[in-house]
Each structure stands twice: as C-alpha cells, then as structure tokens.
Specification:
- This protein has 298 residues and is α+β, with helices and mostly antiparallel strands.
- It has helices at 41-51, 132-152, 160-176, 217-220, 222-228, 235-250, 285-288; strands at residues 26-27, 31-32, 54-56, 66-68, 81-83, 86-91, 94-100, 103-105, 108-111, 117-121, 124-131, 183-191, 194-200, 206-208, 211-214, 260-266, 269-272.
- The strands form 4 sheets. Strands 5, 8, 9, 10, 11, 12, 13 and 14 form an 8-stranded antiparallel sheet that branches. Strands 15-6-7-16-17 form a 5-stranded antiparallel sheet, with helices on one face. The protein has a two-stranded antiparallel ribbon with strand order 1-2.
- The longest helix is centred in the middle third of the chain and has 21 residues, at 132-152.
C-alpha cells in the first residue's frame, strides 16, 4: 500500500502523479495566497516528493541512467492563455461591467466561450484581463473566503470594497515574491446603498472610479467614458454607452471577438447576461480600398 503522512491520512503517490492536496491559503503571518512549510504536512510531503531528483533511462533500455534536477516551476511567469479588455461603469441604480468571452492561446483565438465575469457573492462580481489560470487561482481564494462566511452562519458576507482590499494585498504580496499573478481585476458591487467599482493591477496598483477599463480598453474606451458618462445616467443609457465602447475596442483589438457578456449589480441583486453580439459595420468607404493612399502597401 502507498505510504501515508503520519497523522493526516493522506496517501503519498510513489510516482508523484497524484493531485497535490489543497493547501491552506490564508496565513496572517506572511499574507494571503502563500503559506510556509509546516502548515500542511500532507502538502509538504507531496511537494518534496515531486521536487526530488528522478532517474531516467533511455527508452531503448541501453546506457546508464541519468538524474535530472527539476528546478523551480515557472508555469505562469509568462502569460499563455489570456483575456483582454474589461469595462466598467456606475449608473443611477447600480454598477455594470462588460467583457468578451474569448481567451487567446498566444495570438490564436482558441477558447471562445469563456465566462470571464464571475459572481463572488450576492453583492459582488469580478472580471479579469490576463492569464486565465491565475484568475482561476484567485477565484479559489475568494471561494475560501465565501465558504468561511457561510460556515460562520451569522448572515453576513464580505462587501465589494472588502474583497477589493483583500485582492490588493494578494496581488501586492505575490509581486513582492517575484511571482506575480498575471491579471488585472475589475471588482464591482452594491451593498448598504453604496455602489462600488475598482480595479487592481498585477503588481498591486489599484484605484476606484465612476468608470474604468482594464487591458486594451484603457486606450480605446476611457476617452468615450470621459466624454459621455455621468453617475446619474439610466441603465438603458449605461448599456448603450457600454456597447459603444465595446464596439470601439472590437474594431481595433485583434484579440477580441464579437461575443460579449454584460453583468449588472443593483440593490436588488446581480445579473450576468447571456452572450450577445453588438452590431458592426465594416463597409466604410476607406475600408474598401485601404491601400489607395498608402504608397508601397500591398
């Protein structure tokens, strides 16, 4: 039978191919998202086994075995599967965010039905740009917080601004360990009559505003927001402005696709829409012969 870690009941895979047990993610000493050795013995034992040097023999069975040192893991030091623009704005009755459903593998439009807007609790939603796997890790941290709230069974849950503050610490903590989570996050919600909208970057930079954008939309959408947005605009006007900004980004960003979701949070709850398309027009006169006035173009 496989060996077990004394006092835990966890089995240790002899080949190291067993899923590593979930490690406690919140530690008041060194911050959220990172835990030192000694807190979870089962995880420590599996981790050491996976990191141990391994002997390899050529497939033809000849020659002497050689040892390979695994070295440090660098799986998300560079983003691979990424999402782009996220937009957000406040309006009279609540807050709204929008993004497309595309995640690119490099520059390939690979995954076209990814829900990049997630519900955190009954009053908060979150979306992201950047690496998809890092966002999944962030969601696992938030699910732990939500589970803790549920287990307390006192009827309270974290407010949007509290989740925002927590994520600021997570992102900055990982940045200080030179292992950042490669995301920019948009947090939105309504609680106790207060409407909240904030963004957190991959190195912990953060701000709140009445409208904001993450990713390429910072360049394309923010000018439209500054020109047309007001805090007391109706939901209908806010959605119309959001679709106009999405269209402006879509026509200029090669890593976007015409399949969007819009989520809104009001005092009555939250709602994430089904995917939809915005009307497009590629029939502009200068689109028909783009090289006419560009000498040397092909």
């Amino acid at each position: 039978p496989p060996p077990t870690v004394e006092g835990t009941g966890f089995e240790i895979s002899a080949r190291g191919d067993r899923m590593i047990p979930t490690r406690v993610s919140h530690n008041p000493i060194i911050g959220p998202g990172v835990v030192p050795f000694g807190v979870d013995p089962a995880y420590d034992a599996q981790y050491k086994l996976n990191q141990a040097p391994r002997s390899h023999v050529a497939s033809h069975g000849q020659g002497k075995p050689f040892t390979v040192e695994p070295g440090p893991h660098q799986r998300t030091q560079y983003p691979y599967v990424t999402g782009t623009t996220v937009l957000g704005c406040k309006y009279k009755d609540g807050v709204m965010i929008a993004c497309d459903t595309l995640c690119c593998y490099g520059s390939t439009k690979r995954y076209k039905s990814v829900e990049r807007i997630k519900k955190v609790n009954s009053s908060t939603i979150i979306s992201f740009t950047g690496e998809l796997s890092d966002f999944h890790y962030i969601i696992s941290l938030l699910e732990e917080l939500d589970t803790t709230d549920y287990c307390e069974d006192d009827g309270s849950e974290l407010a949007p601004w509290e989740i925002y503050s927590y994520l600021c610490r997570v992102m900055y903590n990982r940045r200080n360990k030179f292992d950042p989570l490669w995301n920019s996050l948009v947090v939105a919600g309504v609680k106790h009559g207060r409407t909240f909208l904030g963004t957190v970057g991959m190195i912990g930079q953060h701000y709140e505003d009445s409208h904001l954008a993450a990713g390429f939309g910072n360049h394309m959408a923010r000018p439209l927001f500054r020109e047309k947005h007001t805090d007391d605009m109706s939901e209908e006007d806010a959605r119309k402005l959001m679709e106009e900004c999405l269209r402006a980004c879509l026509m200029r960003d090669k890593t976007m696709m015409n399949k969007f979701q819009i989520a809104k949070v009001t005092a009555g709850g939250l709602e994430i829409s089904e995917p939809f398309q915005v009307p497009m027009n590629w029939g502009y006169e200068k689109f028909k012969d783009p090289t006419k006035h560009a000498v040397g173009a092909w």
